[in-house]
Amino acid sequence: MPPDATVSDLVDEIQSTLHIPVDNQKLMVAKLGMLKAPFGDRPVADLQNKKITLLGTSSAEIASLHAASEKAAARQAHLASARRHTPKAYSRRDPVRAQEDSQYTFLAVRPLPNLPRPERSLAFLERLKADPGIRAAMRAHKFSVGLLTEMDPLSYTESSHEGTTRILGLNRNQGEVIELRLRTDAYDGYRDYKTIRNTLCHELAHNVHGPHDRNFWDLCHQIEREVAKADWKSGGHSVGESEFYEPSEEIAYDHGGWTGGEFVLGGGGPSSLGAGAAAGRTLSRREIMAKAAEERLKKQRNMQADSDGDASAPDGS
Q1: pLDDT tens-digit profile of 191-236?
Q2: N or C: more exposed end of the chain, with fewer CB within 10 A?
Q3: Distance between CA atoms of residues 136 and 138, nearest Å
Q4: Are residues 105 and 55 part of one domain?
Q5: Among 13, 70, 126, 203, which one carries the catalytic annotation?
Q6: Taking the model in full, what pTM does it have?
Q7: For residue 72, is pLDDT > 80?
Q8: Is 203 an annotated catalytic residue?
């Protein structure tokens, strides 16, 4: 710079050489501080032998920033216009349906903590609770169950010369508690999901009817049909990975309700079985097996009562 040049002459030269507009320039000068527009007539000799740091943005960078800003503004305007012309979303959630789902359901689910990996049983129970078919049936019949839990496989199992009898489900106090036999006897897997779900349908029918009479079986089959019809998901996956339970020789039955500390056995006897056949409807294999199991228990109780009566009777009676 010429000896008589000013700081204004310096920033003009910077603008010409580096394409940084004067108004965008700031000069940090050691011991003098910051100099910025308007720079005035200060002699450039005052800056001699001092470190000068230039702060500024070139014209190209400014143009690029303006272009980016305009592009962003245009995009925002387009989105705003699209939102104005898009129909407002509305919720498909039915408040009445939501209230029924929260009322007619299992208020609690609980695995047995003393058995291995209770988290797997909890997932099984949660799946039953969330099953679309089960939820639809519980809404339709206004069923509310206090607790859904699992049954210890060692409980309610009887063996005789006729085979092994296992109770697959229990309903206590018409829906206060429902227990389901989820696990295999060896505790190493879980039974087939749809088998357990059908057992749950059976136990839900006990919310209305205790004995295994014609009214009970009609309601049980109705619930099973409703559950299958409303099950829009693809079912049948096993929680126990590849472990499945296929009922063969064992007999599945249950005690129905729980009243006054004693199991209430479904009854009806052979006469009710004949009445069902006389009505023109053939009982299913499960119904016949349940009836047979109940008849065996009833016969055992009667034989025990006769034996006790003979033992207490006086000689010669």
Answers
A1: 999 999 999 999 999 999 999 999 999 999 999 999 998 876 644 4
A2: C
A3: 6
A4: no
A5: 203
A6: 0.49
A7: yes
A8: yes
**Measured on CA atoms in the order 184, 189, 190, 192, is the torsion positive or negative?**
negative
Task: For the beta carbon of residue 67, count every other beta carbon within 10 angstroms.
Answer: 10
pLDDT of residue 31: 79
> What is the spatial distance between Cα 60 and Cα 41, in angstroms, rounded to a whole number?
28
Under the banding of pLDDT at 50, 70 and 90, the label for residue 263 is: very low
Residue 308 and residue 99: Cα distance in Å, rounded?
Answer: 55
- Do 155 and 108 share a domain, yes or no? yes
Give the domain-ending residue among 85, 106, 135: 85
Helix (H, G, I), strand (E, B) or coil at 191: coil
The answer to whether 197 touches 227, Cβ cutoff 8 Å, is yes
Instruction: Give the model confidence (pLDDT) of 267-316 as tens digits.
Output: 333 333 333 333 344 455 566 666 666 776 677 777 777 666 665 555 54
Is residue 190 included in any domain, yes or no?
yes
- With b for 16 or more beta-carbon neighbours within 10 A and e for fewer, the 78-90 pattern comes to eeeeeeeeeeeee
Distance (Å, rounded) from C-alpha 159 to C-alpha 171?
22
Q: Which conformational region is residue 315 in: left (phi greater than 0), alpha (psi within -120 to 50 degrees), or beta?
A: beta
Q: For 190, phi and psi rounded to 5 degrees?
A: -125, 150
Q: What is the pLDDT of residues 180-194, one digit of tens each?
A: 999 988 777 899 999
Structural domain tally of the chain?
2
Closest to 138 in 3D by CA, of 259, 214, 230, 252: 230
Q: What CA–CA distance (Å, rounded) separates 66 from 21? A: 15
| Percent composition of the chain: helix, strand, coil (DSSP 3-state, to 5) | 45, 15, 40
| DSSP 3-state of 180 | strand
Residue found by looking up tokens 């059908």 in the block: 198
pLDDT of residue 88: 61
Q: Give the residue from 85, 114, 138 where a domain finishes.
A: 85
What's the CA gap between 32 and 28, in Å, rounded? 8
